[in-house]
Write a structure and sequence with these properties.
The protein has 324 residues and is mainly α. Helix content is 81%, strand content 1%. This is Sodium:calcium antiporter.
Length: 324
């Protein structure tokens, strides 16, 4: 089994390190070009912690492993809510802004329902993938317009703030510098994430065969939790800094990006069917826990420690039911 665990763990490490370099270089290059800090925060920085999921799902799709590709998307969303929000709430009760609840949490639930419904009746074609990506672009554009006109920030802003707080290297430089260095940093990051994604997918496939279980189970558990490590780190840091609202926005924003951006891009590049075990069980679980998180958040605009314990226990039960 060691020959499968080594590339899987090495792939995760390369994905996280490469994703950080890629986003850092892209952000610095965007600043030099003169792009608005708000736009940079809601796009490049906001998407930063989702890079491991994106690369892994696309690589798995291209390798003919839709169980890992879509298991990663659905499993990451479930882990974000039950594990990451649960741990964050346990460390510090999560405060929820009205904007994140009214707009972003509703969008998270709606896109989870739409994905679950579409996966049950349609293959993930390029046309459907393009529609999901267009939905993400439209959502981000809408958020940018709203946050330019209002001082009340939502989940996507909080997601980018969480990553910026966790990685001081993403603080935007004030002085104009050469574009060469940021572009080289971004290129090095791109090489690392592509290499890491390939190693992770290869290790996951080998691990599934070695254990004699489906690739989908590996995608929903080991791969999903591994690629969600950046979200876990940024949410925990936000919780330890008593920035509970940022932790909530990080989870909600990540889940929206995962379905629309990562699910859509995977379908666009490598069309396939979502495996039936995900359609029948895991996608409905994703919808249910999304509704549960929204319910917890709506009760007093906070997620208390006891609710965090419920979420963590729910993740333990989910993995116990899933693992053969």
């Amino acid at each position: 089994m060691l020959e499968h665990w080594v590339p899987l763990i090495a792939g995760l490490l390369l994905l996280v390190a490469g994703g950080e370099l890629l986003v850092r270089g892209a952000v610095q290059a965007a600043v030099q070009i003169g792009i608005s800090p708000l736009v940079i925060g809601l796009t490049l920085v906001g998407f930063g912690t989702s890079m491991p999921e994106l690369v892994t799902s696309v690589q798995a799709g291209l390798s003919g492993s839709p169980g890992i590709a879509y298991g990663n998307v659905v499993g990451s969303n479930i882990a974000n809510i039950l594990l990451i929000a649960g741990v964050s709430a346990l460390l510090c009760p999560i405060l929820v802004s009205r904007a994140a609840l009214r707009r972003d949490a509703v969008v998270m639930v709606v896109v989870a329902i739409v994905f679950a419904g579409l996966a049950a009746v349609l293959p993930m074609t390029r046309l459907l993938g393009a529609a999901l990506v267009a939905g993400l672009i439209g959502y981000i554009w809408f958020v940018i317009q709203q946050e330019r006109a209002s001082a009340e920030a939502g989940a996507v802003h909080d997601k980018s703030q969480a990553l910026s707080e966790a990685d001081p290297g993403l603080k935007m430089p004030r002085k104009r510098q050469s574009l060469v260095v940021p572009l080289l940093i971004a290129l090095a990051g791109l090489v690392l994430v592509v290499t890491g994604g390939s190693l992770l997918v290869g290790g996951a496939i080998g691990l599934a065969r070695g254990f004699g279980i489906s690739e989908t189970v590996i995608g929903l558990t080991i791969v999903a939790v591994g690629t969600s490590m950046p979200e876990l780190v940024t949410s925990v840091i936000a919780a330890l800094k008593r920035q509970g609202d940022v932790a909530f926005g990080n989870v909600v924003g990540s889940n929206i990006y995962n379905i629309l951006g990562i699910g859509g891009t995977t379908a666009l590049i490598a069309p396939s069917h979502v495996p039936q075990e995900i359609v029948r069980f895991d996608a409905p679980v994703m919808v249910a826990v999304s509704l549960l998180l929204m319910l917890f958040a709506a009760t007093g605009l906070r997620i208390a420690r006891r609710e965090g314990l419920v979420l963590i226990a729910g993740y333990g039960a989910y993995v116990w039911m899933l693992w053969p």
